[in-house]
Amino acid sequence: LTRDTEAMLATAGFRLDEAETMYLPSTPKIAGFVSWGSAVAV
């Protein structure tokens, strides 16, 4: 998946407080890419 999740959240009216993305260790790359963080509605 190649969606810009941070831009999508901003377009939906959220302000990102923090965001992080990474590949989980010892997980196949096809299933191990994750994004997490916190956002506040503006």
TrEMBL record:
One of its GO terms (biological process) is methylation. Keywords: Methyltransferase, Transferase. It comes from the Bacteria. GO terms for molecular function: methyltransferase activity. This is SAM-dependent methyltransferase. It comes from Hyphomonas atlantica.
